[in-house]
Sequence to fold (134 residues):
Amino acid sequence: MIERCIEYIMIHTDIFDAINKSTNNLIVAMKNDDVDKIEFFIDNRDHVINLSKEVYSRIESFINNLPQEELTKENIEIIKSWSFDLSDQINSVQAKDNEIIEMLNEMKTNVGKEIGDIYKISQKFKGYNLNNVK
Fold:
């Protein structure tokens, strides 16, 4: 049973690498104002995060149901090591998420300014409607 648990730990580690890669790609797309890629990477990232949650649940289940004889020092160290690595990776992704939130707020502010500018311009030309002139 510990072999399956370790296998899932390795899968989870790979999934978290994919989350980091997708997050980095999202940041690059946001810096380049590439809306199509932003949408793609957000969807991809959400899918991978959901997959990560499923694998994590399986790992928890394996750990909770491990027979006593499989709880060797070596196996406990593997689980602890994974847990510490996971914590570091979560902190890294959270820091990147904060960067993404800041970028989204900046984009929101810029869009608001653009809408305001367009509205002001449309108001300036409102009196110049020549369609009704004979």
